[in-house]
């Protein structure tokens, strides 16, 4: 077989091959050889990079694994647990300052409040376990030379508050909620019972829930340490209501109108008693209190005019009912003066605003005698000046006055007039903290001409969060 195979090879070697074809073959071979070397180099570099990445990944897993003080778990389980934690969605910043997003929703949630401790030195005590020793309650100021405790000291932290708020955007407008509590639920001095202050929700311009009455413009209230407030201001009534707010502008002046239906509660004095703050609430109300307020907001202040219309109704034990319709009006304003200083004022008048003025249970809405229901005409006023000594120091001086035209048949202990003076010095070294001292003078006068005075010095420390 070998001789036969060599014949064709010999013939091929002796045949004349073109020189050009031979050179092309040589160039093609050299090019293929160069490409193979390039591919080998790239493969080596890729293997080196893969080894580096595997090493970095191992180091990352080792860093994420917690220090084990209990028997070790298997490496596979530990890695799976770490990956699960890393892949959970993080809590993000909410749409409103001081809030965070609830994971998986568009709702921003906020938590806040403050811790406040009050130290009060009273010239006379309102009596054992009375709110009058914890804040100014005008109806509990003793008349004449009271046999009660004098030069009394009280510590409490009941005004401390906590609130939750939520903000959710929607096609109908922003959906907002507010829930707030303090610890004034029981008058006992050393009992801290939570009390609901606010609980409401709003969508766009529509609000439903418990909050400040629309009859009160809270922007005009003076900055006081005493939670009882000035005698002449509209009292801080918080009650369930339904309210619509419609903003608009007139000649570039921002304004808004508020219309509300609010929870009715007739407060009636039907029997002369020894206690000036004892009234009956017959729970016979048929119609909600009607409130309308217009707010003016110029660059140099805030003003409002509010009107109140309500029915006061009583049903006795025999089923006999009596009712009277009455109303009231309130003008309130805050005027900016020099730098940060301001003047605040309120003027109020009406024959059905007994529970809307002064502090808790000071005046009745109507008096009942021999089956006749008589509304009480009341007028009141408040004037306050706020002065900033510096950005950290401020003072507020406030005077308030209320007079009620009580009927001749009212009991001798029934309150006919109250007035108050508040003067304070507040220091806020940093924004979350306020320290302050306040002097309070309050006077109550009864129908028979007797009066009683309360002098109080209050020290407060408040820490916001």
In short:
With 465 residues, the protein is α+β, with helices and mostly antiparallel strands. It has helices at 2-14, 19-64, 75-86; strands spanning 99-101, 108-124, 150-156, 161-168, 175-182, 195-203, 206-212, 238-250, 253-262, 268-269, 289-296, 301-315, 321-336, 342-350, 366-369, 372-375, 377-388, 393-405, 415-427, 433-446, 451-464.
Explain how this protein is built.
- The chain has 465 residues and is of the alpha+beta class.
- Strand 8 and strand 9 (253-262) form a beta hairpin.
- Strands 2-4-5-6-7-8-9-11-12-13-14-17-18-19-20-21 form a 16-stranded antiparallel beta barrel.
- The protein has helices at 2-14, 19-64, 75-86, and strands at 99-101, 108-124, 150-156, 161-168, 175-182, 195-203, 206-212, 238-250, 253-262, 268-269, 289-296, 301-315, 321-336, 342-350, 366-369, 372-375, 377-388, 393-405, 415-427, 433-446, 451-464.
- The protein has one domain (106-464): Porin, CATH 2.40.160.10.
- The relative contact order is 0.11.
- Mean pLDDT is 86; it is low at 1-20 and 65-78.
- It is elongated.
- It is built from three helices and 21 strands.
């Amino acid at each position: 077989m070998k001789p036969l195979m060599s014949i064709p090879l010999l013939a091929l070697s002796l045949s004349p091959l073109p020189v050009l074809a031979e050179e092309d073959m040589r160039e093609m071979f050299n090019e293929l050889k160069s490409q193979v070397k390039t591919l080998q180099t790239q493969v080596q570099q890729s293997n080196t990079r893969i080894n580096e990445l595997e090493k970095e990944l191992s180091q990352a897993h080792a860093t994420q694994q917690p220090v084990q003080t209990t028997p070790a778990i298997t490496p596979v389980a530990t890695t799976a647990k770490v990956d699960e934690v890393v892949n959970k969605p993080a809590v993000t910043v909410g749409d409103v300052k001081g809030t965070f997003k609830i994971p998986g929703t568009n709702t921003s949630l906020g938590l806040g409040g403050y811790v406040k401790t009050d130290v009060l030195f009273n010239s006379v005590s309102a009596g054992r376990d009375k709110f009058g020793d914890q804040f100014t309650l005008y109806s509990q100021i003793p008349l004449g030379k009271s046999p009660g405790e004098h030069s009394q000291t009280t510590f409490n932290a009941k005004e401390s508050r906590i609130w939750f708020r939520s903000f959710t955007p929607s096609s109908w407008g922003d959906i907002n909620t507010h829930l707030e509590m303090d610890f004034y639920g029981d008058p006992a001095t050393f009992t801290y019972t939570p009390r609901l202050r606010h609980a409401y929700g709003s969508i766009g311009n529509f609000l439903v829930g418990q909050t400040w009455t629309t009859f009160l413009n809270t922007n005009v209230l003076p900055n006081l340490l005493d939670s009882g407030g000035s005698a002449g201001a509209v009292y801080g009534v918080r009650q369930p209501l339904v309210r619509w707010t419609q903003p608009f502008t007139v000649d570039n002046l921002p304004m808004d109108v508020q219309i509300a239906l609010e929870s009715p509660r007739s407060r009636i004095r039907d029997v002369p008693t020894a206690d000036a703050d004892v009234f009956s609430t017959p729970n016979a109300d048929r119609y909600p209190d009607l409130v309308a307020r217009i707010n003016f907001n110029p660059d140099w202040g805030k003003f409002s005019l509010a009107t109140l219309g309500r029915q006061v109704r009583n049903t006795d034990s025999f089923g006999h009912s009596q009712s009277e319709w009455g109303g009231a009006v309130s003008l309130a304003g805050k005027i900016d003066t020099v730098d940060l200083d301001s003047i605040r004022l309120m003027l109020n008048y009406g024959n059905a605003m007994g529970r809307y003025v002064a502090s808790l249970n000071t005046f009745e809405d109507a008096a009942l005698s021999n089956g006749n229901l008589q509304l009480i005409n009341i007028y009141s006023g408040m004037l306050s000046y706020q002065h900033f000594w510096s950005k950290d120091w401020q003072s507020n001086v406030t005077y308030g006055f209320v007079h009620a035209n009580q009927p001749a048949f009212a009991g001798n202990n029934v309150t006919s007039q109250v007035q108050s003076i508040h003067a304070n010095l507040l220091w806020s070294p940093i924004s979350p903290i306020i320290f302050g001292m306040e002097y309070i003078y309050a006077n109550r006068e009864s129908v028979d001409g007797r009066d009683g005075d309360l002098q109080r010095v209050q020290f407060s420390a408040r820490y916001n969060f």
